[in-house]
Every structure is written in C-alpha cells, then in structure tokens.
Amino acid sequence: MSPDRWRLLLMAFSGTLFGWMFDHALLGLVAGLGLYIYLLESDTRTMLEWLRSYREDRSPVLHGLQEDVIREIEVLRNHYRLREDKLSQFLQRFQDATTALPDALVMLNPDNRIEWANVRAAEYLGINWPQDHKQRVANLIRYPQLLEYLEQGDSERDGKGLSLPAPDDPQLKLEYRVMPYGDNLKLLIARDITQIEQINQMRRDFIANASHELRTPLTVIAGYLEAMEDDSVLQDAGLVPQVRQMRTQAARMQALIEDLLMLSALETGRPGDKPQIVSVADMLENIQREAISLSGLRAHDIRLNADSDIQLRGDHNQLYSAFSNLVVNAVQYTPPGGTISIDWYADNDGAHMQVTDTGEGIAAEHIPRLTERFYRVDKGRSRESGGTGLGLAIVKHILSHHQAHLHIESEPKKGSVFQCNFPPQSVVLRSQKTQTG
Ligand code: ADP
Fold first, then answer.
1. What is the widest separation between alpha-carbon atoms in the chain?
2. Can you give the pTM of this predicted structure?
3. Which residue in 269, 143, 264, 104 sits closest to 200, CA to CA?
4. Nearest CA to 178 among 190, 169, 166, 193?
5. Which atom of ligand 1 is nearest to the CA of 389?
6. Is ligand 1 within 6 A of the CB of residue 259?
7. pLDDT digits (tens, 9 = 90+) for 48-74
8. What's the CA-to-centroid distance between 410 and ligand 1, angstroms?
9. 311: CA distance to ligand 1 center in Å?
10. Distance (Å, rounded) from C-alpha 112 to C-alpha 296?
11. From CA 352, how far away is CA 418, in angstroms rounded?
12. Closest ligand 1 atom to 394 CA
C-alpha cells in the first residue's frame, strides 16, 4: 500500500479512536478526514507555488503523491532543457553558417514579407534582420522585374536568375534567384557577380575590337584579290585557281567577322531600343527570292505560305537576319531538288515563323547544342557550304531580344523544322492597325 493510503487510514483511525474515547466516534472520523484533506490541499498549494516561481535549486518538501508528481516534473524539465540546449546549439551553428555564406539570403512568406535574412542581406540588399521583419520586400527593393520574378517564381525563367545591380550600389552587380520551398514560402538569394560581369564585358569588348580591327585590312585584301583574278600576268602564269581560292577564303573570313560583329552588337545592344511594326510576309517574300537565287542549279522547291495580315513588333534588320539565316541553312543542308517550306501564321500561343526542309536532318544528341557558337554537326560540310558556325547563335540572340524562342525538330535523312515562336503581345494585326489608326 502506498504511504498516502497509510496516512489516510492512520488519520481516519486516530480520529475515530479519539472521538470514541469521548463517545463521538463519527465526529472523530470526520475530524481525521478533514485534517487529511487540509494537509493535501496545503501540499498542492505549495506545489503550485513552486511551479509558478520555478527555481532549479529549490524543490519543496512534500509528501507521498505530490512528491512523486514533483519528481516526474523534474525529469520532464531536464529532458526539455536538454532538447532546448541542442536546438539553440543547432540554431547557433546555422546562424554561423549563414553568416559565412558569400550570398545574401532572405526568407519570404506567401505575401512576400520578410521572415528572416542573413547578415549579407544587409550588405547587398539593405535588408536588416530583425528590424525589417514582416516588411514587404517590394518596399526595400524596387525593381519591377524582380517583383514580377517573385510573383511568377522560378518556373517561368527556366532556372535562370535575374542580373541587376544592388539597390543602393549600382557598381555591385547581383544575380537574384527565387527558390520556392515549404508551404508557399520563398527564398530570395542574391549573389555577387560583379567580377564575372567584368570578365564577360572584357571578352565582349575584345571580340568586338578585334573583329573591327580585322575588318578594314580584310576588305583591302579581298579587293586586291578580286582585281588579281583578271590580271593577265597571273592568268598567263596559271595562278588564277590559287587566287580564286584565296578570294573564297577571304570572303569566308569576312563573313565570320561580320557575324562576330553582329553577335557583339546583339550582346551589348539593349533589346527593344527602336521597336518597329514589321511586315513579316513582305520580308519572307524577299528572303524566298534570295533563297531561290542561292539554290541556283540545285533547284530546290522553295514554297512560301505567309499570312500578310500578321505583323510583328520588333527590329526589322534583326528579324531579317534571323529568318534569312534559317532559310539559307535549309538551302545549304538540303540535297538538290528537295523541298523547303517557309510558313508564317498565328494562333492562340502567338505568331510562328517556320522553316521546314526535306534535308539531311540532325541527330537528336546535337539538337540542344546547335545554338552554341561554332557548334557544327559536320565541320567539313559546314565550311564547304560557307557556314561560319555562328548563324544559329545569332538567331537565338535575336529571338531572345524579341521574347521569342527557337524550337527545333529534326530526324536524320528526313529533314528538319526550325520554328521561331513569338508571344501574342508582339503580334500586330494589319486589320487591327487600320481600324485603330
Ligand atoms: P553554320 O554556319 O555552320 O551553318 P549554324 O549556326 O547556322 O552554322 O548551324 C549550326 C549547325 O547546325 C550547322 O553546322 C549544321 O550542322 C546544323 N544545321 C543548321 N541548320 C540545319 C538544317 N536545316 N538541316 C540540317 N542541319 C542544320
């Protein structure tokens, strides 16, 4: 039997005995039980006071059941204290790690309010933790592109970050990434890319300057070589084939330099500087004419199916260059007599310019790399046809300036489809324009 029960029995028995001695046994029992209840109540009160003003070093002196309860509470308290210590150690280590990180990290709730930020966030973004807790990130970083990125998440950007200067320091170039996590929360990461940007700028400047410097001497060389072909002394000496070959090579170098200059202009030029309304159908008619002349004796069947009602908002020269590159490629990589279709149409997804050929096709493993500079499926074949290996890189750049994408489908020995997909907001219908204007 537990000590408590002994205590209860003892008090009831002593009370009854004492009452019996005075002929009031029942009254004695009630008095004994009353004393027991009083002691129980006073022990419970002491325990409650101890719990309210908890002191580790001072446990109350209690009896029986309450003493057991106090011991159990102590065990539980020790257990939680250990867990608390572990958690605060972990938090300290996490905080040390985020401080050591070279990137700024900001945790955002579904309303884009700041939940937490590391030390670097103050340096890069001017976001101070904990002062800016629950502040809207839009109040501290006022780039519309970044706010749009925060709304649409990473999915729309194909995993590509956003390059923008730091809000308070235009010299500091940052790459912003937004990663969704947990229950509709977001992590905004900003990385210092100033050095990478500087190196890229140096590379771009070097290519542009070198190409520019080579352009004039090459024009002179090509001009003299052209004149030398008609020179009677060289004709008599039988040197015309060599001179012709030199001229072909000089022309290739000229084409290469023009393409390199075009690429650097595309890389440095700001997209959408001078948007024009382009009549794509008229442009494709010219390109078709040029393609027929380029095909010459190879007699390709070059068809055009263009809706002249659909016009495009964009840069005329750039679009001409992109579309012509795709059509020239189709002529170069399609055997004589093959069919090339040029289509221009619109649907709910936007406007599409498509070049379909019945040429040699491209194996699937090459397709993702075709828009890399100097990537060729067959180097010899490309050089022979006068290709620079830069054509599709230029097309990709031009399309990205127009918020458009290049889609390639191809099957070896069957042919290829190169499709430029423009968003609906770039489309201007001729009928619409005449109605409004
Ligand atoms: P190039 O100047 O060599 O044509 P591009 O960048 O225009 O360079 O094209 C890259 C490569 O893609 C080409 O070398 C060729 O192998 C392949 N290619 C491009 N268009 C076609 C096509 N219509 N059919 C088959 N292969 C093609």
1. 158
2. 0.70
3. 264
4. 190
5. 8
6. no
7. 888 887 766 667 777 777 778 888 888
8. 12
9. 27
10. 61
11. 10
12. 6
